[in-house]
Amino acid sequence: MKVTKTFIDGVVVIEPQVFGDHRGFFMESWNKKQMEEAGFFYDFIQDNHSSSTVKGTLRGIHFQKGEKCQAKLVRCTSGAVLDVAVDLRKNSPTYKKWVAVELSADNKKQLLIPRGFGHAFLTLTNRVEFLYKADNYYTPEADAGIRWNDPDINIEWGIDNPILSEKDTKNPFLKDIEEELNF
């Protein structure tokens, strides 16, 4: 397993060791012992699976508030996405900064996102399958989001009119919920 740090503390790219031959490949997508040896201690308790059929679909920026916040280990198993983690920890030196990584079925990269971050992804291909582990259960009353095109965050999506859910079109701007953030 190869671990590459990003400029935001705690957000890392993980590249599993892949064994391939004429039949296909094998890899361990999660190994708690290896993660702990690398200094990452997570107790993932929920797996989630998302499917998007059309290129240009944007999901996010999502997070859970307070004690219900979630760390995530995300990966793309079909197609490709631009995956984004946004630092929402108000006391962090990288508050409002973001990291973007292309995750794909081909590169098999994963992104480890600690608690206190917003998360979003944009599909770069049709037929995307996206999986992620979370270390806290989904809790509807803690569910929150920020507008995908928030000017205070200024993510470079490379698209002007993504396909959004109704919920994501109504997400507030960060400045309107900033005082509610308590990571």
Our measurement of the CA-to-CA distance between the termini, rounded to an integer number of angstroms, reads 29 Å
State the oligomer.
single chain
Main structural class = mainly beta
* Shape, per Cα inertia axes: globular
CATH architecture, please? Sandwich
Radius of gyration over alpha carbons? 16 Å
Residue-averaged pLDDT: 97
How much helicity do the residues have? under 10%
Major beta sheet, strand line-up: 1-2-10-7-12-5
Q: CATH homologous superfamily?
A: Jelly Rolls
User: What's the CATH class label?
Assistant: Mainly Beta
Integer tally of domains = 1
Describe this entry's structure for a reader.
The chain has about 180 residues and is mainly beta. The protein has a single domain, classed as Sandwich (Jelly Rolls). It is built from 3 helices and 13 strands, in the order E-E-E-E-H-E-E-E-E-E-E-E-E-E-H-H. The chain has helices at about 30-35, 165-170, 175, and strands at about 1-5, 10-15, 20, 25, 45-50, 60-65, 70-80, 80-85, 100-105, 110-115, 115-125, 130-135, 145. The strands form 3 sheets. Strands 1-2-10-7-12-5 form a 6-stranded antiparallel beta sheet, with no helix packed on it. Strands 9-8-11-6-13 form a 5-stranded antiparallel beta sheet, with no helix packed on it. Strands 3-4 form a two-stranded antiparallel sheet. A hairpin with a 6-residue loop joins strand 1 (about 1-5) and strand 2 (about 10-15). The chain starts with a strand and ends in a 6-residue tail after the last helix.
